[in-house]
Amino acid sequence: MEKTQTQKRKTAKTVKSLKNHRKISMLTAYDYPFAKLLDEAGIDIILVGDSLGNVGLGYKNTLPVTLTEMIIHTQAVSRAVNQAMVVTDMPFGTFQQGPKHALSCAIDLIKAGAQAVKIEGAQHLDSIKAIIRAGIPVMGHLGFTPQSVNQLGYSIQGKSKLQTSNIKKDAKRLEKLGCFSVVLELVPPDLAKQVSSSLKIPVIGIGAGPHCDGQVLVTHDLLGLYPNPPSFVKKQANLNPLIKKALQKFIKSI
Ligand code: KIV
């Protein structure tokens, strides 16, 4: 029997097995064309991030993003993907209202084509536990967690002794609970190094230095589609002026 599209994709098991073998690559996509480009380029994980809010929908931050929006964009991404693993963010409000609600939201995202969900923070372990118990892989997210921007501001986490110790403890907790990997955002490189080497599951960094098991970025930042990406982003292209030039060429041509 021919393999179905999802059977050929990388899985949580594949991603776990890459630790200590090679670096894991992860980038965001919110729509069909970008997901197809990333998949064909050979990316390991496509994240349907709730950065969809600021990057794709023009919101001020990720907080207004709804489950329905994440479902629609996960469906679009999933239709394009052949070999990468698709992970979708659980948006703000979907995992803070108890395990029953969280599981129901996670199931909706899996039905939309995600193979795993990502959950920010370690405050709602009961929700994470219920989702994992249902057979859904969970990726944790520690350090700077954008859904807590009203509490944290946009700032580096893990600078004080207390924060450092909390991040280390939370990472261990998430691993113990059964998360298959953890994103670590905006923490000092040395802390990221310590967390990566202390866990058996892969740690995927963003603005966390070079020592993690993998790296994730917002694709629009990587490609220079927006003028002011965060300072830790090493752009691989500067597409904004190129696209504008092409558009102006078209306007002039008619
Ligand atoms: O929503 C997102 O794009 C993310 C990544 C930046 C890690 O969570």
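^ 3-methyl-2-oxobutanoic acid complex. Residues 12-222 form a domain with the TIM Barrel fold (CATH 3.20.20.60). The pocket of 3-methyl-2-oxobutanoic acid is lined by residues 28, 47, 49-51, 89, 183, 185, 206, 216, 218 (CB under 6 Å).
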